[in-house]
Amino acid sequence: MNLESLQQSCPLVSRMGHPADSHVQVKNVKIGGSGLVVMAGPCAVEDEEQIMTIAAAVKAAGAQVLRGGAFKPRTSPYTFQGMGEAGLILLKQAGEAFDMPVVTELMDSEDFDLINEYTDIIQIGARNMQNFSLLKRVGKAGKPVMLKRGLSATLEEFLMAAEYIMASGNDQVILCERGIRTFETHMRNTLDLNVVTAVKELSHLPIIIDPSHATGKWQMVSPLSRAAVAIGADGLMIEVHHKPKEALSDGPQSLKPERFNQLMQELGHIHGIIRQTDSWS
Ligand code: PEP
Ligand code: MN
Q1: Which stretches of 143-242 are assigned E, i.e. beta strand?
Q2: Is the C-beta atom of 69 inside 6 A of ligand 1?
Q3: Mutate to test the pocket of ligand 1, among 145, 209, 210, 254 (most ligand atoms within 8 A of CB)
């Protein structure tokens, strides 16, 4: 796939028709362009104390967007499925308390109105990347959509999924690479950082990296976050939990607030250097 062929299949996503980088504005946060945006928070909202504690910590560390799942796509039906609407209420409350836009996953078209009422960015999860009716539904939302790459999706399929959203009328799309499934089982997934450079060549859309789901191990989150910023990603989505061992989901890949704070400082330094060596614009 080159720029010419992408222009045929994905005229709206392609950089050919839109040479400048696009950005998505969510309240006072600009995603794309020269800044670095970090979305952070727990995998799932668990209770008021948990989301407020974590929101306070990630805000203090410099995160701009608060994440937290209320409807969780879990591999096993017997594990915590999320708090549902009660979780959405708590997430919105925490976002307002700390002046941060929020992002949460929409798993099913039938929950659209509910999610839309509470969130600032609608997340489409990896397992739904090719749920075309869901993509068309969020394409009609007048609100930013963060589209995660499917577990086994090629770059072309990923960009075509974004095209579905744009073709339905929504140009506020943020791409998110969260690791793909390969023969390697050491990590939860394999983080495809190549895709950042490829997307920057082929598309004007902002792309962020989720090193938490990409690796499944908190020890790997900081190094891969640093690499993601160094390669030119527009932002990161990072899972943070103040008591990872007690987390109801994804504790092993969640950073404690102190480590997240340290990482944010490191990312600031790396981003400062990268801005000066930017080769894309
Ligand atoms: C998430 O971010 O909460 C999530 C479930 O991620 P993914 O869809 O990438 O697995
Ligand atoms: Mn998670």
Answers
A1: 145-148, 173-177, 207-209, 235-239
A2: yes
A3: 210
